[in-house]
Each structure stands twice: as structure tokens, then as C-alpha cells.
Amino acid sequence: MQAALSFYGTAVGKKMVVAVTGLFLFLFLLIHMLGNLQLFAGPEALNHYAAFLHSKPVLVWGFRVLVAGAFALHILATLQLFLQNLGARPVPYRVKRTVEIDYSSRTMIWSGPLVLLFLLYHLLHLTVGSVHPDFSAGDVYRNVVTAFSLWPVAAVYIGANLLLGFHLKHGLWSWFQTLGLAHPRYNRWRNCFAWLLALLLATGNIAMPVAVLAGWVD
Amino acid sequence: MKLTLHIWRQRDRGDRGRFVTYRLDDVSPHMSFLEMLDVLNEQLVGRGEEPVAFDHDCREGICGACGVVINGLPHGGFPGTTTCQLHMRHFQDGDEITVEPWRSKAFPVIKDLVVDRSALDRIAQAGGFISVRTGSAPEANSVPGPKEAADLAMDAAECIGCGACVAACPNGAAMLFTAAKISHLGLLPQGQPERERRARNMVSAMQREGFGACTNYRECEAACPKRISINFIARMNRDFLKASLLHGRERGGKRQAR
Fold first, then answer.
1. Measured on CA atoms in the order B163, B168, B169, B172, is the torsion positive or negative?
2. More exposed terminus of chain A, fewer Cβ within 10 Å: N or C?
């Protein structure tokens, strides 16, 4: 316990907690996306998949608890690091230029909370159904299609997943760096890996509202 | 060339400080940035004003004493260049140049452009050493080590502790400095006995000094006048993780009674 506390007490330790929980959340997102892509296989496939998940409450709830725990740790450690950074430069520069920072690394601290807000909306929208105009438990296919037929809803989903893509692009690259997985032979692949997986996840998720809007799925 | 300088002036630690604008009319492009400040100071002293205080020592880019933020970039932002090795030919006639001290909670301003960087010394003291017997120097070839590791250790050992990494980091983190110090000893055979303790102690010392945390922006390696790579930060993280996971666990070399 003492060792765990002194590990977590350092910025490096907190970063590692953010990295490990972040990777776990990414794996969840990947499974979530692959399951949902059954939208393209028709109402029976998607509804059958949903019914299968709901027939295994231990699995579903166990997974939900793990994901919620990972979220809590990911956010808590990030918040603590953010506060540490805020205090590290009390007098700002009058002129400050940057050389290497890219869009996704600069916006991590905003893309995170925005994606979290979206997540709350998403849970109320398609899991609980309380902000869905015409929700019927069990008919996941119909819920998704009627939801995305409204363009503002589809736009929110598309925007949130673009943000998530940027968040993941920096997060997946950082995962290697933070956990010390760096070697000149493999380093150039880390960026490709991060781009590829971030793009894969964002494209897969965005494909669903786009397909409904375009009328390919109804 | 003619220049307009906006320089941070601060009497002492307690003073709030402010920017003061100076005009220089006769700057030679062959001067270094510090020589340009010397010229300014001669004029200030001639007018009976207080000269601008700035840190400097070797003026050949190897001591790490100099360092100011020039137009928003530490050491002016030229690759592998310290402030003393930055020449005025990189500027244009009529340029406006803003000169600020390193900004960090851990680096309090002592006067004008001079900051107190002893926080870095305290990190080094926490583990930046090896324990050897005193006496005459040991025979150099008695401890074999791989050439690649020695080269890598030298890359890390190039760190002059100027603090540009902290100044450049949007979070004010000192990870690149600490990583370089941990790595340069951790790569050598003489540094192995204390390797894990070193990683834990130096990372903890960095925390105590009030530096920020790394967000993998990579601004530090761009600003480093010795072009030290953030690969050393990954190496530090690796050492720290291993040291934390295994700390105090490897006991029980003897059979225990049940």
C-alpha cells in the first residue's frame, strides 16, 4: 500500500494510471464499436446481439463496473496532473511560441471533458432512453435508426467521435511513451499505430449516423 | 542594425517586475546575443542606470549558465544553440525582441533575467551519483560495457542543466532534465547498483520541487540546446515503473519457516 501510494504520488505514476486505464477504455470502445457495426447486418443481427448481452447480466454489469472504475481513475489522475500543471507556472510568458505541439495533444484537456459530456448524453439517449423521443427497450435497431434520422442528433454523434479520434490519436501514441515503450527501431511505428487505430474507431462510429442520414440503413 | 528590446526587469524576488523597452542603434550581426546585452548594459551604466542582470559563464555553449526566453522560445529556438552561441545575424534590422526569464514555480526570479535553478541541483542530489571507493582512479578498461550503451549514456550526459526543457514545456515539467540524469548513469555499468533507487528518488525529488507533469508535447526536446531526445523520458518511465513494481519485493533468498 505504501509502495502504491508513493508510486501514485509522482507525476510519472499518475501518468501511468492514465495510460493503463486509457488503453482499457480504448479496448472497450473497440469492442463496443464492433458490436454496434452489426447495424449494417440488419435489425435481427443487432437486436439478437443486444438480447444476447442482456441475457448475461453478470458479464454486462461486471464490465460496466470495470469501465466505470477505469473512467474514474482516468479522470481523477488527469485532474490531479492538470492541477499540478496549472500551479507550475504562476507567472505566464508575455510571448510564447511552440514548435512541436500538434492539435490533438494541445486539445486533450478539452476533448476529454467534451467526450465525457457526450458519453452522459449517449447513455441517457441509447442505453436508458430517457432523452430519446421514441425509445423501445429491446428494439435497439429501431432506436438507433430513429435517433440518427434527426440530423442534429447525428451531428452530435459525428462531432463527438471526431473529438474522440483526436483524443485517441494523442492518447495511443502517449501510451507507448508513458509506459516506457520506446526504441529507435519501433518509434516511427508508434505514430502510425496511433493514427490508424484512432481513424479506425472514429470511422467505424461515424459510419453509423452517416449511413442512417444517407438512407443506406432504415 | 537597430533593435527594439522588451526586457523583463525585476529588482529582487519580492518585486512584481515589468517589461522595459530599450533601443539599440549599433548592433553588429557578428555579436552573440549576450554580447548584444553587454553593449546594452554598457550604455545603461554610462547613463547611470541599473544594468540588466543575466546569467552567463563559459559563453561557449557548454556550461548551462545562460538561458533566456527570446521571442517566446528558450535560447531563441535555434536547433542545438544556447543563448551565448546565438548570433545577432539571425535577426533583422528593426526587429523587436522580447526577452524573458525562464518561467517556472520551481525557478524563482532572483533579479531581471536570472532565475534560481537549484531545484535541478536538488533533483540531481537525490540520485545523480554513483558510489565508488575513493582513492586513485581505477583502471579504465577494468569495467567492460557495450559501446552502444556508452554512446547513449554520453548523449544523455550532454545535458548541461540549463533548464530550457522546463522553460519550453507548456506544463513547466522537468522530465527531460531528470530523464537525462537518470539515463546517463543508468546506462553505464558503474550506475547499475543504484539504478532502481536512483529512478525512484529522482522522480520523487522532481515532484517535491513543484514542476509540472509531462503531456508528451515534445517541446522540451525541440528547445534542448543539446538536442536530447524524449526517448530518455521513456527510459526514465521504464526504470521508474520497474523500480516501483519490484521495490522491496525481492527478499526471501533463504527458505522461510511456514
1. positive
2. N
